[in-house]
Amino acid sequence: MSERKLGKAPARHDPRSYRLGPVLAERLIAIPDKIDWAPDVAWPMWGNDTLGCCTQVSVASAIRCWSGAAQGPVTLTTPQVIANYSAESGYVPDTPATDRGAVELDVLNHWCRVGYERPGAIRDYLTAFGTVEPHERDGVRRAIAALGGLYIGVQVPNYIMQTRGDWVVAPNADQTIIGGHAVWLHGYDADFLLFNSWGQSLRMSWDWFETYCDEAYGLVSRQNWLGIRSRSPQFEDIDTLLAELRAS
Q: Are 52 and 156 in contact (CB under 8 A)?
């Protein structure tokens, strides 16, 4: 479908990245059977029909998800998403050759160090992030439940570009990998993970996720995920979590 663009560059794994799984398993909440941090959100396309800016669409999705659950919804504009894509990836508007996508790890490091545009007079900064093992279902659930979502990268088989329905494993469909895609997971239940892409609310089955996900990051946002008591909606003390992250 021509209105769908990919843009996640090949995964780059840094051995220095925090491993979130052990920290979350030791300290955080019991795992709910299901959770959805962004019910009934109308997701914008954010330029991902014409540009390979999915890594920044996922940043905007995270901010909208966190702020909507913990404070009041903050929705980036399409020009802000494109400006953030340009600032991190080197994309030059109206110069197609510079639309090369981005590496998720670089996007997250830039978010921590330099920040991104958001509505209002201040920039948006990510506090910290760490890796989550895609094949450890309890770790994935725990990260989504405690941190408000999961920033992931997947390798997309061709048949996914031809459907608007659930992303499920289809052994008889065209399995040719046509590129990488970044998405923000904002919930799950027993059968599916919940996410948005290309302006739609979508679901992927757990086995699809485990087959095609090649990187996953739990993100900590002091700016967006804290309520008036300086705790997350699940009442996790962010300072304690950060101390544990940095000691891991």
A: no
